[in-house]
Amino acid sequence: MSYSRIIGTGGYLPDRILTNAELATMVETSDQWIVERTGIRTRHLAAADQGTCDLAEQAARRALEAANLDAAELDLIIVATTTPDRIFPSTACLLQERLGNNHAAAFDVQAVCSGFIYGLSIADKFIKTGSVKRALVIGAEVFSRLVDWKDRNTCVLFGDGAGAVILEASSEPGILSTSLHADGSHKDKLTVPATVRQGKLDGNGFTEMKGNEVFKFAVKILGSLVEEVLTKNQLNTSDIDWLIPHQANIRIISATAKKLNLPIEKVILTVSEHGNTSAASIPLALDVGVRDGRIKRGDTMLLEAIGGGFTWGAALIKL
Ligand code: UT7
Fold this sequence. Notes:
Elements: E1 3-12, E2 16-19, H1 20-23, H2 31-38, E3 42-45, H3 52-67, E4 76-80, H4 91-99, E5 105-109, H5 115-128, E6 134-142, H6 152-155, E7 160-170, E8 175-182, E9 190-191, E10 194-197, E11 200-203, E12 208-209, H7 211-232, E13 242-245, H8 250-259, H9 271-274, H10 281-291, E14 300-307, E15 311-318
Parallel strand pairs: 4-5, 4-6, 13-14
Antiparallel strand pairs: 1-7, 2-3, 6-7, 8-15, 9-12, 10-11, 14-15
Helix pairs in contact: 3-4, 7-8
The chain binds oxa(dethia)-CoA.
């Protein structure tokens, strides 16, 4: 049987850092409120001339370098994003051209904050069937552009960034299982309810969120999701070396770690410095943990996320 193995990771964060203190001069909030309720202290913002593809390209180049691979060797490019540079072509096609690859299948995945898990799961299935040998999976977002900077309910939460992994077919274990779910009946709880019609934006182009409802659903569903993954793989919580969660709120992350009986030292946390970067948050956290030497070859990692839709999903991976 063929597995998908991660052979390289990469991340990119734009230079501009926005602090809680600066936000407190923009809306009625405080560093104390933001830290206590979310765990976020800073977030990165893309420059005016940077788009999702620019961020994705940097992360992709770093992952390719770590994998010692030329972009021409990729057969599949998946970009998970909520903020594509164009309505079409996909950001994956724009990225493919930048990387100098003109043959790989390339497409975007839209599952908001769960997008990277969705992308990873799709790429894994391509590799398992033997139709793809090497895939690039990216989560990349300029989510700050979907945020109303006068709305304190949302603007303190989000940031921009990109994270990437290179997967390769291998006889050695890599991705052990993935689980994907969605329930569209929650569509109005976290949404940008707009479309482009006849050349104009039709609807509200800013993020609307019923924060408390999202919070409660996230804690409940992520608890049952991690149980589902353990049962499916006949594992105990003690078999998990690292939890790499979507970085939306430290309180949601802590609740999931508690459910897994994992000490917080076994959780890769970037929420404090990155904020919620939507589809980019998990691959960015993975890259941080790999590059600082905490996550080692052979470690078992549980990745999990929930996002607008609602969508949610998890991946169990042996590095
Ligand atoms: O990435 C996809 C998943 N997204 C998430 O996971 C987000 C999930 N939701 C959350 O993380 C939390 O619900 C929030 C951090 C958004 C809010 O925390 P909360 O503990 O649920 O607070 P709340 O919405 O119940 O609001 C409590 C109070 C309200 O004031 P009143 O009505 O009690 O007077 C809000 O108006 O806090 C107020 N508030 C703020 N105060 C200062 C809301 N935002 C702010 C703010 N600064 N930025």
